[in-house]
Amino acid sequence: MASEIRVNKINSRTGVGTITLSPTGVDFTGIATVATLKATTGIVTSLTVTGNATVGDTVAITTVGDTTVRDLTVRTVTSSDQVISNRSGTSICFRAQSSGTDNFTVQADGKVKIGSNTLVTPDANADNFVIDTGDVDSGLSILSATTGRIYFGDAADDEAGSIRYVHTDNSMRFETNSAEKLRITSGGDVSIVGDNQKLLIGANDDIEIYHDGSNSYLNDAGTGGLFIRAANQIGFRDAANSFANFANFVSGGAIDLYYNGSKKFETTASGVNITGAFNVGSATSITSSSLKVNDVQYPTSGPLSNRNLMINGAMQVAQRGTTSTVNGYGTVDRIKVEYGQAQVTQSQLALTSGDPYNEGFRYALRQKITTASSAGNSYAQFRTHLEGQNLAQSGWNYGDSNATLVTSFWARSSLAGTYYVQYRFPDSGSSNYFNRAFTLSANTWTKITNTIPGRSGLVIDNNNGTGLEYVICPYYGTDYSGSNATTDSYFTLTNNDYFPNFAQNFANTLNATFDVTGIQLEVGSKATPFEHRTYGDDVRICQRYYTQSYNTYETPGADTTTSNPGVISSTAYGTIAYASAGTAFFPVEMRGTPTVTMYSYDGTLGKINADNTEGTGSAFRISTKSAFFARNNDSSGVGANVYISCHYTAEAEL
């Protein structure tokens, strides 16, 4: 069957061009455009080529003026397998069909679709190009020799964002703001490109993972906790994938900590195993200032017991009595109440409430101004002396400025103001004074804590002499205070300026009171809770410095005629000039050879009783352990079966 070209209707001028049909195709002679084929207002309604007819290599229809091509169809004669249609006036302006089904369409609004299926209606914000063939799998292929790209741009930047596949290293790369931010390597590794670029997880960016150029961080900024979970084990390993220098956590089992491949810490069912020294801080023992046991400060240095270098800091021992006007040792053992110009009464004060009471203290030492004085040489202080050997052997490296003692005590004054605690080292001469200031509100117990550093050249002799004078000072007058004295550093005593000038005048305030208790002095930088001792322990330590035959709290020289408790006594067998009351063995060995004072049992100083007759007596053969008492060539009242007796005090105070 011969091929044919049928033109259903061509409106044109007569004689315009020729159409020649030949065995090899169709020739259009003199017809260059559609305008040539149609009259000025004509319409080409149909051009059909059937069979094997060929219209050159190209069919070109160019619209000129108002020319309209309503329908152009190219297909085989025997089927409609290939259809290209262009129809104006419809929603689809270009389509490719197979067997009557659209495989490719371009809509009038420019939207493109591949396939005729409608699995779902595309989102209106992403329906400009749709692939919906109805196949199980659909896809889009970008084939290139080196790089395949998809760009995202706007009016300001034609490539603000992109997705690239680079064939040279088989990586997928993602760019934002014209810079690569994320890369997936051929091995499946995901890289966030650049330092300080963060992987953010959570509705509020709760977790951040990033590297800042030097270090890597995992930050949890959320309101909850950060939990790392594993079914069996969590390990922190080095680059060699070993536990060296890191840690291992086993579910339901041990927690192991390593140093350089060696396990140093391991938890067990019964506790903790530590290999090597347990160092807290810089030393080789537990010395951290942050370590607490049962929420109580652990010692930062020195021994764990007998830490308190202060004797009778709880003020519970008062062998001489509970009240006195004596200038010096008068009530509480080991602490002198000293004053000048003003008159002071000292007393052991019973506590029944307050913060010190709540910490176990039942006594305080009080001084009270009974006669005020504004004199420049007036003063009032508490002072105690510590033996040099006790400090020298305490563990304090006093020649090192980084080694410290720490003191703590409770103080209360009826007069608000700034007061001082002073440390004096007599073995080092006048160049080693050290003050710390503290402030009190009126009638309010305040816990005072401060430290004193060591010092190069500081001398503390290892003997039973005074190694440290510890002074708590309510007041020094202007004769003993001034600008030559400093606080918080060592200074040389100059012009008797022991302290800076006092703003308040305690000595010139009648009935003013100052109370102290709970004095502790220990090696270290952190104060630990007060080391309470039993009364028996404290009194034995105090008897190294003072002891008496009287009952505790009974004033020496008191009349004990009624019951004669505590007297040293023996029985005479005749009239002799050196009748002896006997030997007194002291409760503990005294610090040094004591000063012994003797009283008759009715209180007369220097007398020994022969029954009710007093005679002159003396202490003989005095040592640190005992003293022998006898009449001194005085036989008054002495006879057979006469009772020879006396009281005594023995003092070896510093």
Description:
This protein is mainly beta and 654 residues long. Among the domains are: 147-192; 233-274, no CATH class; 323-542, Galactose-binding domain-like (Jelly Rolls); 546-651. 3% of the residues lie in helices and 38% in strands. The strands form ten sheets. Strands 37, 38, 39, 40, 41, 42, 43 and 44 form an eight-stranded antiparallel β-sheet that branches. Strands 25-27-28-36-30-33 form a six-stranded antiparallel β-sheet. A hairpin with a 5-residue loop joins strand 15 (199-201) and strand 16. It is elongated, with a radius of gyration of 54 Å. The N and C termini lie far apart (145 Å).
Short description:
The chain is mainly β. The protein contains four helices and 44 strands.
Key descriptive features of the protein:
6-stranded antiparallel beta sheet, 8-stranded antiparallel beta sheet, disordered N terminus, elongated, 654 residues, 44 strands, mainly beta, Jelly Rolls, single chain, 38% strand
Helix content: under 10%
What structural class should be given to the helix and strand makeup?
mainly beta
Under CATH, the topology of the domain at 323-542 can be stated as Jelly Rolls
Q: Give the C-alpha Rg.
A: 54 Å
Question: Uncertain runs with pLDDT below 50, 5 residues or more?
Answer: 1-5, 7-14, 37-70, 283-288
CATH superfamily of the domain at 323-542: Galactose-binding domain-like
Shape: elongated
Tell me about the largest β-sheet: 8 strands, antiparallel
Per CATH, the class of the domain at 323-542 reads Mainly Beta
Assess the beta-strand content as a share of residues: 35-45%
What oligomerization state is this entry in? single chain
Write the CATH architecture name of the domain at 323-542. Sandwich
Distance between the termini: 145 Å
Number of strand segments = 44
Average pLDDT level: 83
Q: Report the total helices.
A: 4
